[in-house]
Amino acid sequence: MKTATQSLDISHLRHSLAHLLAAAVLKLYPDAMPTIGPAIENGFYYDFQFTSAVVADDIKKIETEMKSILKSWNEVSAREVSVDEAKKIFAKNPFKQELIDEIDARGESIMMYRWGDFEDLCRGGHLDSVKSIDPNAFILDKLAGAYWRGNEKNPMLTRIYGIAFATQDELESYVKMLGEAEKRDHRKLGRELDLFVFSELVGPGLALWTPRGTLVRNLLDDYVWHLRKEQGYTRVTIPHITKKELYETSGHWDKFQNDLFKIVTREGHEFAMKPMNCPHHTQIFSRKPHSYREMPQRFAETTMCYRDEQSGELHGLSRVRAFTQDDAHVFCRESQLKDEMFKIWDIINRFYAGVGFGSLQVRLSLHDPHSMEKYLGSKEVWEKTENQLRELVRERGVGSIEAPGEAAMYGPKIDFLAKDSIGREWQVATIQIDRNQPERLDLTCVNEQGEKERIVMIHAAIMGSLERFLSIFIEHCAGAFPLWLAPVQVALIPVADRHAQSCFELASKLELSGIRTHVDQLSETVGKKIRNAEKQKVPYMIVIGDKEAEMSEIPVRVRGSQDTVRYSLDAFIEHIVNKMNTQSIDL
């Protein structure tokens, strides 16, 4: 049985609503200039240039007007117009004029679509009839600033976002999820848990990590390194800048130069801060000839990279200008490729189980055959590599989805998608096969016949960007980290000042076993200290007063519970150490 979502083309519904939004805005603000309005995931938006300020309180008025207009809209009609006619229609709108010129330059037809008395420039993709739109299944969500065409040199526009689904129930479920997401916002929790900070003096998109946040980062990175070390990886270290020539040879300069932070030395040489690590790692591999007996070579490094992101696209830890990659590159022979890919896959499965995500969805991110200019290498190499990935996924015995156009510029990849605790899907780990950089940088080994043999390069990221991963992970667990990752594992709360010494003595015994403790010495009531520990999401809490100081057992309060559990000191230590050693997600 089809659901409402299945029977409607949801992207066409959302696109139609974007035009409805434009119609409502023009009714209320006749001098506004509409620009573009696409369907997006979970909704739509439209960008406008207003002659007077529009504020968040105006959203409800615009939404009401949309629902009023919807009653009079029927079927959509389309007509093709000439360039001159289109320019005449939009004579006072320079944004539409620019779009018309671009469509004409591409040799495409210029189409106008009409609903009721509203007509807009568009390439199509709408519902045939808006009568199928449920007026209770969409809302306007928020305002934002957006540069025209995403270029900060262009005028700043006002973007109005909408949320839309096929049914009211779907909309209400999604809005409920957004409410939960707001509570879990990693930017808010990062401040409350004292994990990271941004400074205006340092600059936007440049996170500063506190002692607690650094501890969590290091624990995660140590776990990834432990899993990689078991599979024979070795660590390498590279500088943070490179000559332009390395990226010209690798192909990154041509495809990536607008995203680079560039440096010119006093002698006039051009360098760049590295946005990725693979070209540097190739130079470590190529430092000497490698016999087939030495293959594969597995290099791992956790290091910072830099990309010149636009200010308007920065968002907490999820989009930054300086990010840390848990990067690895395997240089192997064709015959070793499958085993190496599966070893990385095993690392990914173990890591994500250890941080509390369920099973991962597999996505094959492939090239767009209609836009080969975006990629390095030949169509034949791409097709061969993609077919190989399909075979690896089949052999692994898992289902997968395919995403044309999502490949990296040098090769297709297996992306792993994780669902967080409130149902959002995130791309996390990735494995990529690269035959283009070995070709461009002449990477070889010497085979059994004493001849040079072209090798294959595998790119592997487990967390990928630690910053982005932590933005996902903090929201996934709402800041309540698994025991092994909690910055403070046991909070010790003295009832009065005279009980502090007992707390410090207990803390010393716990810390000897590697258990991270904190004694709350603030001049607060016990109730306030307990609430502070709860806000800090500490897994275990022990309150020490006169009675507790004399007891042979420790009264332990577990995060999320009002009850206490009594342990002997040795049993409590054993319990925590076992949980830590197994990366258990349970308390």
How would you describe the overall organization of this protein?
The chain is of the alpha+beta class and about 575 residues long. It has three domains: about 5-180, Threonyl-trna Synthetase, Chain A, domain 2 (Threonyl-tRNA Synthetase, Chain A, domain 2, 2-Layer Sandwich), CATH 3.30.980.10; about 190-360 and about 410-475, BirA Bifunctional Protein, domain 2; about 485-580, 3-Layer(aba) Sandwich (Rossmann fold), CATH 3.40.50. Strands 11-15-16-23-20-19-17-18 form an eight-stranded mixed β-sheet. Helix 7 packs across helix 15 (about 465-475) and helix 8 runs antiparallel to helix 12. The longest helix is centred in the middle third of the chain and has 20 residues, at about 210-230. It starts with a helix and ends in a 6-residue tail after the last helix.
- Measured distance between first and last alpha carbons: 42 Å
Category by helix and strand content: alpha+beta
- CATH top level label of the largest domain: Alpha Beta
- Stretches where pLDDT is under 50 for at least 5 consecutive residues are 1-7
According to CATH, the homologous superfamily of the largest domain is: Bira Bifunctional Protein, Domain 2
Q: How many strands, what sense, and barrel or not for the largest sheet?
A: 8 strands, mixed
Please, what is the average pLDDT?
Answer: 93
Summarize the topology.
Elements: H1 4-7, H2 10-28, E1 33-34, E2 39-40, E3 43-49, H3 59-70, E4 77-81, H4 83-89, H5 94-105, E5 110-115, E6 118-121, E7 138-147, E8 156-164, H6 168-183, H7 186-192, E9 196-198, E10 207-209, H8 211-230, E11 234-235, E12 241-243, H9 244-250, H10 252-256, E13 262-264, E14 270-273, H11 278-285, E15 297-306, E16 322-332, H12 337-354, E17 361-366, H13 379-396, E18 400-404, E19 413-419, E20 425-434, H14 436-440, E21 444-446, E22 452-454, E23 456-465, H15 466-476, E24 490-494, H16 500-512, E25 517-519, H17 526-535, E26 540-544, H18 546-550, E27 554-558, E28 564-567, H19 569-581
Parallel strand pairs: 11-15, 17-18, 24-25, 24-26
Antiparallel strand pairs: 1-3, 2-3, 3-8, 4-5, 5-6, 7-8, 9-10, 12-14, 13-14, 15-16, 16-23, 17-19, 19-20, 20-23, 21-22, 26-27, 27-28
Helix pairs in contact: 2-3, 7-15, 8-12
